[in-house]
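Quick one from the shared queue. A colleague (R.T.) flagged Torsin family 3 member A as missing a structural entry in our internal table.

Convert sequence to structure tokens.
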Amino acid sequence: MCRHPGLACCLLLLLGGWGGRGAARAGEQGPAAAGGAWGAARYEAVERHLGAVGALPERYWRYLACKVWQEGCEEEEGEPGPSPGWSLPLVGQDYLAILSAWYCSFSECCKTGDCRIVNNVTGLEADLTGQLHGQHVAREVVVRAVQGFLQSPRPEKALVLSFHGWSGTGKNFVARMVASHLYRDGLKSMCVKTFISLFHFPHHTYMDSYKAQLEKQIRETVQLCRQPLFIFDEAEKLHFSLLDAIKPFMAHYDHKGQVDYRRSIFLFLSNLGGNTINEVALDFWRAGRAREEISVEFLEQRLRLELQEPAENSYAHSHLIKENLIDFFVPFLPLEYHHVKLCARDAFLARGLPYTEAALDEVARMMVFVPKEVKLFSAQGCKSISQRINYFLP
């Protein structure tokens, strides 16, 4: 009798059927049902693999259940466990990994969100290179910071990145990209929490309540996931009491026996510093220098100096900046005309729509560009591009 409840039980019974007549029936329908997408050879290979799985004795199913669903891991009384050199026959460890990954793609593997952490930094770098336009500095900083943090066996503190730049330059896009490549469920992962200042914390009179709720949610998420991601949009509008509440979770870890927050990642998204970043880009253009010559060090230094100037903004004067808890200030450059055209192209492709160069030019010309004398940078970045292509639908 199957001891694996729900989907796990169904999966075992289904795969077991492939070893006998089930495999024959599936073989008769396979190539046709595949519709040519897989191809006969690949289909037959999967059929052979699953047929081998169906032939496994109960001992190996218990081993599989232990690895995939964390069931049956306790040794039965009087039955010796697998020897150090023991491995699955026929199917092998590779097939076990494939089956585990396939099951985890549509179901939770454990009671926490850890099973669905993928940390695909290679995919993150590739997608940022292909889809994040005009942001060589931000791409470089984000990839290096995330990769270095994930590769560190014992980080001293949580990773804290602060994104700065005009609206529409890609700050939210990169945050979503990070979430989608580190977690199988992206922003919907139980390990990812997003907070929008004016949406989640709108009333100053309720800040004490907001603070308690925020602290509780961060603690619970860290306890649930070994690698949580917290995104704070419109960070410049966060009340100082909320910033003080967040601070302990990002400080250097020195509290033995308590919850460990060192594997947490914090992203702050802000329009602060946008004018300074734009001035640097404009100065390079006026000097006839390519924007790709703008270095991480030069922009970050200018950005830090602006945030240290006297201002009424609570984020700029928070302990996060004063105590150097932010690891990297990530500048997002203003977007130029050809970057807007690339965004328009991506919007057409995302909706499966054909486009022409003339259509891309027309979309770009609909945007407002500044400064007035040269009309170099898009005032809205790439925001509203997806809505503007509606004008070109039949």
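The first strand starts at residue 159 and ends at 164.
The chain has three domains: 6-75+85-109, 121-331, 337-392.
Added to the table.
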